[in-house]
Specification:
The complex is a heterodimer.
Chain A lengths: L1 E6 L6 H7 L2 H9 L2 E7 L7 H7 L9 E5 L10 E6 L5 H7 L2 E4 L3 H9 L5 E4 L9 H11 L4 E2 L5 H9 L9 H8 L10 H10 L3
Parallel strand pairs in A: 1-2, 1-5, 2-4, 5-6, 6-7
Antiparallel strand pairs in A: 3-4
Chain B lengths: L1 H23 L21 E5 L2 H12 L9 E6 L3 H14 L8 E6 L9 H26 L8 E4 L4 H14 L6 E5 L10 H6 L5 E4 L11 E3 L5
Parallel strand pairs in B: 1-2, 1-4, 2-3, 4-5, 5-6, 6-7
Helix pairs in contact in B: 2-3, 4-5
Classes of the chains: A alpha/beta, B alpha/beta.
């Protein structure tokens, strides 16, 4: 069983959250054995289709839990979905999921990559942002091999290889991931201190 | 005639002020501005600007690496109603947490200089409010209390806009030739190839300008990159 966290931080990124609930993407989750989907959708609206189809009731904080596709087709397991706008326990959530699909915010990226063990991270930059320096960071980090990158339109193509790069081979998954994702170093806690000490005249 | 005289006076003052500002700018070749040696047990007062959101979380990481017995007392500057920054302070300080350190920090809330997408005129008004409050809290009140010492020996900033106001006010003491607050700017980890607007604005004025990716500083000789800091 695997679980996926989708997070947009404090931003408005309906293109991503709507896409996640499209039948195409949901079926990719089903066929790759994802059983839990946690969606932190920020300032966006919950997709109308989802609200109608599932008779979804959100509480005051925009929170809801639903099951999608409860084994109706081909005996596949259901997908348990938790939805909410914001959370105070972001780190705990990241810890509880194997895969993270995130907007390009540096906070989310650092949290996911510095978790022990580090999370497999797919970043989807929000292309509608005016000053899109966040995409710069995501590009650089993907060039260096720390994470995978996708845009919203391509998600159906990138998602299967993110979740399951070699579905037909019986490979050591752990080893495979080590090759796919370079380990992002932990924070060097002496670096800034020594710059400040130096500036202020300490040896 | 009076107008002309007035104009000349204003112009003259402007020129003098620019010369003075240029004289106090922290240029790389000015070795006389090397820090005085301190012994390891000496204390150093520090001010930390928490700029909200991602700025606050990066600043929190930076400050969490500092020895609080050395960098004390601490002044945290934040914007009104910024609860995330308040939480950041309480988590930083509770880590330091002994009772004897209770008065080792103060919190200084300022009106926000610019809200997201605020129009120009109202930005001007709110920025001048910020300026006046900050002028009193970090320049005038400390000056009246003890003219010899600045409100803090070092100020850490990493954006956004409001930190420009703090730099402006810190410059008054430099222009007057008094002991002044050193300023360190840390560009965001998210800035890979270019500087943020506040970074560009404060770069000539700060004593240390740190970027976290080698390309972020462009051709500027001032920007220093010592790798990732958060």
């Amino acid at each position: 069983m695997s679980s996926v966290l989708v997070t947009v931080g404090s931003t408005l990124f309906p293109a991503l959250t709507n896409k996640i609930f499209s039948p195409e993407i949901i079926s990719i989750f089903h066929s790759n054995g994802v059983e839990r989907l946690v969606v932190q959708y920020g300032r966006a609206d919950v997709p109308i289709s989802l609200l109608r189809a599932r008779n979804l009731k959100l509480d005051g904080q925009g929170k809801a839990s639903i099951m999608i596709g409860q084994g109706e087709e081909k005996g596949e397991g259901g997908l348990k979905v938790d939805l909410f706008r914001f959370t105070d326990e972001f780190e705990g959530l990241v810890r509880s999921c194997e895969y993270v699909i995130s907007h390009a915010g540096s906070g989310s990226i650092l949290t996911a990559l510095r978790m022990t063990p580090p999370k497999k991270l797919l970043v989807v930059p929000n292309e509608s942002l005016m000053d899109n320096h966040q995409a710069e960071l995501a590009n650089k980090m993907s060039e260096e091999g720390y994470l995978m990158l996708s845009n919203v339109e391509d998600l159906a193509n990138t998602l299967p290889s993110f979740l399951n790069p070699n579905p037909h081979l019986d490979v050591d998954v752990k080893k495979e991931d080590e090759e796919r994702f370079k380990l992002f170093p932990q924070m060097d806690r002496g670096r800034f201190k020594s710059i400040l000490d130096d500036t202020m005249g300490y040896e | 005639m009076v107008l002309l005289a007035g104009l000349t006076a204003v112009l003259g003052l402007g020129v003098l002020l620019s010369i003075r500002i240029h004289h106090v700018l922290p240029l790389p070749h000015r070795t006389s501005r090397q820090a005085k040696r301190r012994n390891p047990n000496e204390r150093c007062s520090i001010a930390i600007f928490l700029g909200s959101g991602g700025h606050t979380s990066e600043m929190k990481s930076l400050v969490s690496t500092l020895p609080f017995d050395r960098y004390t007392p601490r002044t945290y500057i934040l914007c009104h109603n910024d609860e995330i920054s308040l939480k950041a302070i309480s988590s930083l300080e509770s880590g330091a947490g002994t009772l004897k350190n209770e008065s080792a920090y103060t919190i200084l809330p300022l009106p926000r200089a610019r809200k997201v997408a605020e129009p120009l005129l109202s930005t001007l008004i709110s920025a001048s409010k910020t300026f006046l409050v900050a002028f009193w809290c970090i320049f005038l009140e400390p000056l009246l209390r003890n003219p010899k010492e600045p409100f803090a020996e070092v100020l850490l900033i990493n954006g956004p806009g409001t930190c420009v106001v703090l730099v402006l006010i810190s410059y008054i003491r430099r222009i007057l030739g008094l002991r002044y607050t050193k300023i360190i700017y840390v560009e965001s980890f998210a800035r890979v190839k270019s500087l943020s607007l506040s970074g560009k604005l404060v770069r000539p004025f700060v004593d240390k300008f740190l970027v976290q990716w080698p390309e972020a500083g462009g051709s500027s000789t001032k920007a220093e990159c010592k790798g990732w800091l958060v």
